[in-house]
Amino acid sequence: MTEIALTVGTHSVLERASLDKLFAALSKRGFRLVGPTVRDGAIVYDELKSAADLPVGWTDEQKGGTYRLKSRNDGAVFGYTAGPHSWKKFLHPPAVRLWQADRADGAFEIKEEKPDAQKTAFIGVRSCDLHAIAVQDKVFLNGRYLDPYYQARRENSFIAAINCSQAGGTCFCVSMGTGPKAASGFDLALTEIREQERHYFVAEVGTELGAEILAELPHREVEGHEKAAADETVAKTAQAMGRQMDTTNIKELLYQNYEHPRWDQVAGRCLTCANCTMVCPTCFCTTVEDVTDLKGEHAERWQKWDSCFTRDFSYIHGGSIRATPKTRYRQWMTHKLATWIDQFGTSGCVGCGRCITWCPVGIDITEEVRAIREAPQSPKGSPTGDKHGNT
Amino acid sequence: MAKKQKPKLAVWKFASCDGCQLSLLDCEDQLLPLVGQIEIANFPEASRAVVKGPYDLSLVEGSISTPHDAERIHQVRRASKFLVAIGACATAGGIQALRNFVDVKDFVSIVYATPEYIDTLTKSTPIAEHVKVDFELRGCPINKEQLVEVIGAFLQGRKPNVRQHSVCIECKRRGNICVMVAHGTPCLGPATHTGCGAICPSYDRGCYGCYGPMESANAGGLSLVWEGLGANQSDLVQIYRTFNAYAEPFYTESRIHESKEH
After folding, report:
1. ipTM of the assembly?
2. Which of chain B's residues have a Cβ under 8 Å away from the Cβ of A269?
3. Are B168 and B177 in contact (CB under 8 A)?
4. Closest residue of B to A299, CA-based?
5. Per-domain residue ranges for chain B?
6. How many angstroms separate the CA of residue A283 from the nearest CA in chain B?
7. A187-243 per-position pLDDT tens digit
8. CATH number given to B8-156
9. Burial of A372 by CB count in 10 Å (0-12 exposed, 13-18 middle, 19+ buried)?
10. Percentages helix, strand, coil for chain B, rounded to the nearest 5?
């Protein structure tokens, strides 16, 4: 092995057999390892003991409302696409206790919940999900009200990204400009190459920590043909997207079509079950529940994943603002693709396709945008102008 | 300081199997703290001793299926400050509401040796069709943790944390893999009221709707998915016609598929 200076942006080669050593190096540094593994007929993200837990020889097939786990015979380690879970499961968990309080001597004492600082290495993060993490970073870490729990989890995370070697049936990261190649937000990014005689990874260094970890593993400088193979892998994936979305002026398009008849059509299909928001890697909404014991001596406040598809979500005194499925679906999609841009400066959609696959009735956000784009309604008072009446 | 009197709790049974009120006895670890805070004044399943009303909190189990019960529920209401209907019978008419789809006289003549002894109503109906109900706790049977939550919230004068959304939210929070999308197993979860903890999908089974329809259930939309997975009209009649058969939109949905059967 040739010794090379590992700096941010350099590429090295890591043999397939060295994956174990990557896991060991991370474990040695105190990282809990989480990543893909097969459970209950799907490739999920869970805690991993070793590289043996990775979904070697497994893949998936996805379309609207359908996911199937399939075996493959080439021994690929990361030969699948975005699955039922996203990393928010760990970074923004479904239920978190915020504080507890106990009654004592006529007053009460609040016990603060310390931010969880467990070091966690995320293995196999795809480019769409890197963008999703960046979106949630903007939500939780920008502005006056940053979330200390999220911040602690992010500061203690190590990200080993994987560049996609195949596209799923519901993937459209190319349309959203979020993949399939990891561009930033990782410590190490791997591209898996399977050739007849060889199985290896091209590893790109993203941070100094990534360089330190890689330096502990058997690696060598990448050769021209290996780098070309990695580039070609990603380029092929980009050509194979299962879905596409035209995002030209998408904000204006949706703002001008609040009353489009398509919203009624989609509401007829929508079950308001909220699965799309649960699987979406950027959806961040929560509710808080205050619980008490029977004596009223102990109380706890819990934060739990919530969804704009529930009636309570928009409940204020007197009733729910979004009483109908139409208003809820319109709110979700318009937030994701339009108002999100005003609110956070980016789209709230990263093109992972999870909302399409995991919608029980297979409602397809790309299809909904297409339908509105193909027959847009004229904005009020201005047949060809924008919402302000400018042409 | 004078000792504060404990609020009085009464448990009432109408047409039901007793399973929901037994959930109260099933509270085990929570039962002792509970009796420390509340006086169990009338609970025939637990004690023959009856303390006279009025009662601060009444838990009502069962549906109204006889003329006698249709009278009695008004007495219960008059004696209760706060009335909570518990379980599918009390909130939706229960499994006995299957009579609501047919002529009950036919059943009576087939089942009973002396039909003229039977004095029953043509429909089995939820408590809320007869008197004002302050809160409905769903499920067949109810979830005992939710029952403790409702009683605890009552004692503290706060709103109970009992949501009305789909089972799916609870299922996804648990990290379950969707049995319908990933395995092709028909599941009523997307149209069903949360509260059970998504038990069936957690054991790789489809939800069969014990908690009845959720707040904005689209049964028609879900039926199309079931049909895509191979369910026929008769299957669809069956799945909506169980413990919550009389609750909308399950009631109408089963009738739609029944009319398509013939």
Report:
1. 0.95
2. 218, 221
3. no
4. B156
5. 8-156, 167-261
6. 13
7. 999 999 999 899 999 999 999 999 999 999 999 999 999 999 999 999 999 999 999
8. 3.40.50.700
9. buried
10. 45, 15, 40
